[in-house]
């Protein structure tokens, strides 16, 4: 056996995947066949046969490699590495006290009906306090962990200005520490009193959540978050014109807002960083096309993309945040 035969044998072995074995039996069969030919032709045929075998096995390797790569690209690769959730600063007009929404103004994001930046500060989120003696109390109920919700009208001779003519009812609240308050927070109109109140956490802060399902004529929900600062100041923190859920998706100890719209079937994830909102589109992250629908399940913190394949077939891919990162990995696949 000359060096050239050893050389092509090693090259063939190096080109194989671990599961493809160039066995001693394979080698013996090739060499026995070649050794039956006379001297000069034997050497030439050994070399040519080596090249043929190498080419043949290279095709096998290429087919296997192509299959493995395609298979992983369609399922395993994204499952292992995750699809990055990219956040961008929200560019939106800041709301100023006294301004009202103009429906002709553009939405801040596709499908999200807010016209102004949802995030407020202590200035543009200021909640006025009025004398408790100015109100005629209609009803009250406790907000566990926060204070008391109040439903009231203003007395005719109140120091607080009446916003409109007539007997308008209002909603406000007092804090837990005010058992006999001199003042109350005068928040809005009376219909808010019938909404759902709960204490939750958002962006790492404890907040009061006021939630109204189907509060808009287009069927969207409305959510307001009220924050009490460490110095005791209470102000509007963020308002969203769509359903909103709070969840620490990336495990950094700060809860993101997962905002789900009916309009245009959008899901946005919001973070707060140094007084600025950052946002990411789940539709964009998952690569959903126009015919795909997406859903968020707050109980499991998962996102599902539903795709119609045609001929009565569909597929649902379920994704969740990869622990400790801003990326989505596939958790489940089902369909028919």
From TrEMBL:
Membrane-traversing stretches: 47-67
Domain of life: Bacteria
Keyword Transmembrane assigned: yes
Keywords, alphabetical: Membrane, Transmembrane, Transmembrane helix
Name of the featured protein: Uncharacterized protein
Source organism (scientific name): Paenibacillus soyae
């Amino acid at each position: 056996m000359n060096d050239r035969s050893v050389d092509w044998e090693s090259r063939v072995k190096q080109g194989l995947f671990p599961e493809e074995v160039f066995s001693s039996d394979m080698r013996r069969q090739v060499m026995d066949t070649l050794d039956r030919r006379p001297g000069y032709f034997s050497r030439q045929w050994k070399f040519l046969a080596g090249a043929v075998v190498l080419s043949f096995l290279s095709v096998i390797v290429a087919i296997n490699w192509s299959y493995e790569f395609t298979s992983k690209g369609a399922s395993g690769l994204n499952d292992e590495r995750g699809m990055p959730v990219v956040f961008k600063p929200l560019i939106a007009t800041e709301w100023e006290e006294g301004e009202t929404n103009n429906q002709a103004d553009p939405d801040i994001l596709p499908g999200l009906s807010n016209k102004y930046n949802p995030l407020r500060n202590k200035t543009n989120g200021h909640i006025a306090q009025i004398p408790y003696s100015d109100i005629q109390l209609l009803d009250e109920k406790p907000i566990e962990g926060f204070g008391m919700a109040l439903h009231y009208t203003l007395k005719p001779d109140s120091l607080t200005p009446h916003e409109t003519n007539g007997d308008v009812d209002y909603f406000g609240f007092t804090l837990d520490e005010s058992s006999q308050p001199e003042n109350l927070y005068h928040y809005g109109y009376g219909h808010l009193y019938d909404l759902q109140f709960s204490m939750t956490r958002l962006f790492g802060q404890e907040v009061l959540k006021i939630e109204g399902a189907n509060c808009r004529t287009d069927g969207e929900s409305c959510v307001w978050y009220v924050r009490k600062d460490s110095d005791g100041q209470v102000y509007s923190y963020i308002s969203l014109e769509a359903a909103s859920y709070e969840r620490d998706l990336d495990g950094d100890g700060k809860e993101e807002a997962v905002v789900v719209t009916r309009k245009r079937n959008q899901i946005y994830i919001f973070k707060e960083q140094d007084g600025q909102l950052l946002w990411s589109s789940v539709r964009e992250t998952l690569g959903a096309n126009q015919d795909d629908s997406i859903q968020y399940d707050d109980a499991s913190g998962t996102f599902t993309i539903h795709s119609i394949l045609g001929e009565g077939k569909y597929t649902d891919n379920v994704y969740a945040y990869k622990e400790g990162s801003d990326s989505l990995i596939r958790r489940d696949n089902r369909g028919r």
